[in-house]
Write a structure and sequence with these properties.
The protein folds into 2 domains: about 60 residues; about 80 residues. The chain has about 190 residues and is mainly alpha-helical.
Length: about 190
């Protein structure tokens, strides 16, 4: 890195992070200008150990080589397998997160699975109950209605009945599916 003019204003409060431009200036003054640590202490009002710590940094910014902390419970590869499993059919999309964890033998909690799916854009939504009429269906109904517009006595021969829905031990709650935005009318979501 080419030497630059060190910044002149330095207002460092104890306990705060030293800005990167000042860390770089301390390294340049010590390395290129051969200014001793004692003069750097006076100019920047920092302790000897702080100056030495700044001089021993490998990188000008605070940088981590990689992710630190505990390993993730659900890796990206496992999440890809879960998403492929969900997209297979309607029954898989309706499964709750705890059932998915059991079926795929995942070593994570249902809330972890839910959070990772949310990161990928998959949400639990109410399933679309019925598709709207397509253009072909609208045209078919219109043609049927115009063909039968002049029926008068023929309608008297038609037996009308009401539609009745019978449910025996069924849920009346609307089904929830796991889907992305824009997949509302996907065949596996209806």
């Amino acid at each position: 890195m080419a030497p630059r003019t060190p910044p002149l204003q330095f207002d460092h409060q104890p306990g705060e992070e030293i800005p990167t431009k000042h860390k770089e200036a301390i390294r340049q003054l010590y390395g290129f200008a051969k200014i001793p640590i004692s003069r750097l202490q006076q100019r920047y009002s920092l302790s000897y150990t702080t100056i030495c710590r700044v001089l021993n940094y490998d990188a000008p910014e605070r940088a981590r080589a990689g992710r630190t902390g505990a390993p993730q419970k659900l890796t990206d590869q496992q999440l890809d397998v879960v998403i492929e499993y969900l997209l297979l059919n309607w029954d898989n999309r309706c499964l709750k997160f705890d059932v998915i964890c059991q079926e795929l033998d995942l070593k994570c909690t249902p809330s972890t699975l839910q959070q990772r799916l949310y990161q990928r854009g998959y949400y639990r939504c109410t399933a679309c109950q019925k598709l709207y009429l397509t253009a072909a269906q609208v045209l078919g109904r219109l043609l049927w209605a115009t063909a039968h517009i002049f029926w008068h006595f023929e309608w008297l021969k038609v037996l009308w009945s009401d539609e009745v829905t019978f449910q025996v031990r069924c849920r009346t709650v609307k089904a929830k599916v796991t889907r992305k935005r824009g997949e509302r009318t996907h065949p596996t979501c209806i």
